[in-house]
Structures are given as structure tokens and as C-alpha cells.
Design goal:
2 copies of one chain form a homodimer.
Chain A lengths: L25 H14 L12 H8 L3 H13 L3 E4 L3 E4 L14 H7 L4 E12 L2 H7 L6 E11 L2 E11 L5 H10 L3 H9 L5 E10 L2 H7 L6 E10 L5 E9 L6 E6 L8
Antiparallel strand pairs in A: 1-2, 3-4, 4-5, 5-8, 6-7, 7-8
Helix pairs in contact in A: 1-3, 2-3
The first copy, chain A, binds a DNA duplex through helix 3.
DNA sequence: CGGATTTAGATTGTCAGACGTCTGGCAACT
DNA sequence: AGTTGCCAGACGTCTGACAATCTAAATCCG
């Protein structure tokens, strides 16, 4: 009898979080718990999840509630459900679906390269116009900026700039973070109780300006794909603004598209 | 007493489609029906949907099943659910989420321009290598190719090439289609019982080659965003392959990103 | 013994009904 | 007028049951 409730989701009434935990629905809590478990490798790719009855029992929710969560996981293609057989962790070659908001390191690793970082610079100062606007900050508010070059097998492939309101993350935090080998997401959640919920990314093709070309070791004017993104928490508050300049050929940028809008095209 | 069941979803057993309709789950059928109704404007943005009980009644499914569908719609941000009040059609400015697989025409219209088409060419012949590979066809199998230039307020913004297996869609079909003012998706569904379920798109920045530059009326070597996509039905069979060359500045290419992978970044 | 068939069990899909909680409006009371 | 209490309607969750599907063991038959 393996100790259950090891994974139990917050009971309906008891909000153990301090202030106002902006209570999240039970299915959403299950989605979090299961996503987490899958990504931690507790349920490896291709393996079956426990049956719905067992899972509902472990998470201490009803089967209907659990099924809502599973539906979301299925929509996100994290699991596959087979009638009469069970629910399985997806083995789909998660090529690189931009719809999933994973970090560059994970992206490099998923592509089969060894990730590393170079030329890291942390600066603190007043927010530049674009960042302030996208983060919803007053002009001149202090932000922490992290500029890095990401390498795949020692080859520069991405130049990234990440901007945080200083009140969320200071240069000190970043120093502590790079020591602790923790994920940025994990750090924000553990230390600040802040969870990134979604992001809105914008894609544009650009020609490399001189400074960026130098960092990526390509000639000026080379083709790059620029991904600028704002991340939000579950209340819709902007947490982080980032700009990434990607070499176009080191990985395939793919998107799973759902739909169609059936009344859509001409 | 407004006649209900006007919207009823396929009853569990009766598969009215001919061969094997590759039966789709009831929640998915509800998703389709509701998405359709919303996009047809039956439920305008901001308006409340009928209550879950009513909807379940109209669609002739249980409330649990309906709720699974609503959950998917909520995940896709088509509706917003408010405890104690109701479910409302999302008013969010659906900027242009690449995650949603709507056609170029809808995209242009959503951006506030008047869509039109120019330079349409339909050809029939053996599949070129890339198309055959992506559609899973034998080398040399016949395909129908549709090449168009899309205009927003009379300005060329996209050059698109769409390739279909001739057994699915012939040049005649396309001619009939452009007469009937019907959607391509709608035509496939109505005439062939085929529903496009999802697509996988790949994005690459490119410099315009001469021929494409001419079509889009830009200078050779201009920056373009190339979106090449394969669309699949719900069994995973490839139906259509398309390549679109977009001017980078006529609209913002955005993606809603979910997650994060909590154990993701470095 | 070997192969085909049947059967039992496990698991997901769907349903019907019930109760809790939240919201907003209206009436009664201060 | 302002507050309070009540109530109807809506979503959130739970329970138990049955149907459909798949696997694999058990059975039957040649």
C-alpha cells in the first residue's frame, strides 16, 4: 500500500497558502500536479498513468474532476487516452512545439545538443521604453536585465535578453540562482510564490544588426528569427519580458495548430 | 419554444456518415458544434452561452460531457467561465494566434483589412518531392496545386501554395468551390466527409527569391516569414500541404504559449 | 498438444442526479 | 437610503452506475 495522497491536491476548503491564494480550480490543480509528475519523469514517456480511479483517489478528487484535467493534458498532447486500455504519457516526438513554453535550455537539450551559456551580463537600471510598456511599468522603474548567449554543443545559437521588474527579481537573486542550479521558474515559484502561467510570443524575421551578429558569430545582415515574449501569471499580470534572437537553422520552429475555424477561409 | 436539438450532436450509435466516420468523441463533437456556432456569430463576443443544463439538453449529451467540451473551449480561450454567472464568449482581442488554425482570409479580416485574391493558378501533375514526402504519397502521384496571392486592402501580403492529393480534391472541385463561395474546410467536410483536425506548421525566415518577390511586389532578398504546414484529419492522415510566404510587417505573428514546463529551464 | 473461441477483468467513455458555492437581484427591515 | 436576508439561477464538484473497448487468461475443440 504505497502511501497515497502523497500527491493530493489542495482540499476544496482549506486554502493553506498564506494571503489570498487566488484559489485555483481543482482540475487546474490536477493539471499542475500531473504535468509536474510527468516532467519529473515519475511517469516516463510511453508508460501508462495509473487508472482514473486510482489517480482520482491519489489526488483526492472525483473522477469527473480528474477527467477534466486529463482532457486538458490530452489537448496539450502530454498524454494519450485509449478507450479500454488506459492513459499513457505521450511519446510524440515533441519536436519543438512553440506552443509549449519551455525554456531555451530545454529546447537545446530536446534537439539533442549539449546546452551551455556564454557572455552572461546582468544589469540593473531604469526600464527601456519597450520593456516598460510590455511589463506595464511606469517609465523609469527599475528592472533587472539578463543577457546571455546560448550555445548548443559550444556553437552559439541564441542570444537572449530577459527583463524582470527589480521588485520581482534582483541581480542578487540571479547570482544566487545561478549558484543553486535551480530553474528560473522554480525559483520564482519557491521564493516568491509566483507561477508563470502563460506567455504571449511574437515572431519576426530580422536581419542581424552588428552587435547581435557579433555575439552569434555570424555576418551582419544574416537571417534571424526574433521571438519576443511576455510571460504572465494566472491573474494576467506581466512578470517577464524576453527577446530571443535565434539562428534559423539550428532547430525547426514548429507549431501545433488546432482548429480549424470551420467558418474561416474564403 | 424555440426548436431545440437544432444543434444536436451525433447520437452515440448512429453514424450517419458513409463508410467509417472514424467516430469522434462526444466532447469533441460538442467542441466542434460550439466553435462553429460562435464563429457563425450565433453567440456574439461577450454574450452568455445558454446555461450548461440547456446546452447539454440541446446537444443531447450529459452535462459532464458538455463540461469537458467547455473546458477545451476555455483552454483555447474561446469562452470564459464565471462561477455563479455563466459562460461567456471571449471578448479577448484574438490578435492573431498562430496556435489557432484559421485561414489567411480570416487572418486578413481579423487584422481589419479587406481580403482579396489575385494571380490564382490551379495546376495538376505529379507531386514534387517535398509535397509527396509530407503528404505520405508515392513519388509521382497526382496532386492538385493551388497558387494564390492574397491581398489586404489590395496590397499583396501573402503568397500561398496549397497542395492536395488529387484523389481528395481535383481542379474541378476547386473551380466549383470558388463559384460556391464556400470555405475550403467546409467543402471538404460537406462533400468528402473529411474534417481537418490539426496542423503542424514550421516557421522559417527567408529572403525572397526572385519569383516570389515579384509576386509580392517587393525587392529580391526582402525578409519574409515562411510558414509551411501539413494538415491532418483526426486519424492522423495527412490531407494537405501548404507553404505561405508572408510579408513580415503586415500583421503580428503571435503565439499563446502554455506551461511552463515546470522542470524546464536551466 | 495447438489453435480458435469464450469469458472475465480492467479501463476509459458517458450518463443521471444530487449537493455545494457563488452571484446578483429583490424584498423586508432598520 | 442603507443594510440585511432570502432566493433563483449558474457553475463546481461528487457519487454511483452502466456502456464500450481492450487485454489476457481460461476454455473448448480438433
Amino acid at each position: 500500500m504505497a502511501d497515497r495522497r502523497e500527491m493530493a491536491v489542495t482540499p476544496p476548503t482549506a486554502a493553506r497558502g498564506s494571503r489570498r491564494t487566488a484559489r485555483v480550480s481543482l482540475p487546474d490543480a490536477c493539471v499542475r500536479a500531473l504535468t509536474d509528475a510527468i516532467e519529473r519523469g515519475i511517469y516516463p514517456a510511453g508508460s501508462p498513468l495509473p487508472s482514473e480511479n486510482e489517480l482520482a483517489d491519489q489526488l483526492q478528487v472525483s473522477r469527473a474532476t480528474l477527467r477534466e484535467a486529463l482532457r486538458t493534458l490530452e489537448d496539450r498532447q502530454l498524454v494519450v487516452r485509449r478507450h479500454g486500455r488506459g492513459t499513457f504519457v505521450s511519446t510524440a516526438p515533441i519536436v519543438n512545439d512553440l506552443h509549449r513554453n519551455f525554456g531555451i535550455t530545454a529546447m537545446i537539450r530536446a534537439a539533442g545538443y549539449e546546452p551551455s551559456t556564454a557572455g552572461q551580463e546582468v544589469t540593473t537600471g531604469p526600464a527601456p521604453r519597450d520593456a516598460a510598456e510590455r511589463l506595464g511599468l511606469a517609465r523609469g522603474e527599475t528592472v533587472t536585465t539578463l543577457r546571455r548567449i546560448r550555445l548548443a554543443d559550444k556553437r552559439p545559437v541564441v542570444l537572449s535578453v530577459e527583463v524582470f521588474p527589480a521588485r520581482l527579481l534582483t541581480a542578487d537573486d540571479l547570482a544566487r540562482l545561478s549558484d543553486s542550479r535551480q530553474s528560473l521558474y522554480g525559483y520564482l515559484y519557491a521564493e516568491r510564490g509566483i507561477a508563470i502561467h502563460r506567455g504571449l510570443a511574437e515572431l519576426t524575421p530580422v536581419k542581424a544588426p552588428a552587435e547581435i551578429a557579433a555575439g552569434l558569430e555570424v555576418v551582419r545582415g544574416s537571417l534571424l528569427l526574433c521571438i519576443s515574449q511576455v510571460d504572465y501569471d494566472d491573474t494576467g499580470k506581466a512578470l517577464m519580458y524576453s527577446v530571443e534572437y535565434h539562428l534559423p537553422d539550428w532547430v525547426r520552429f514548429t507549431i501545433e495548430r488546432i482548429g480549424p475555424g470551420s467558418a474561416a477561409d474564403d
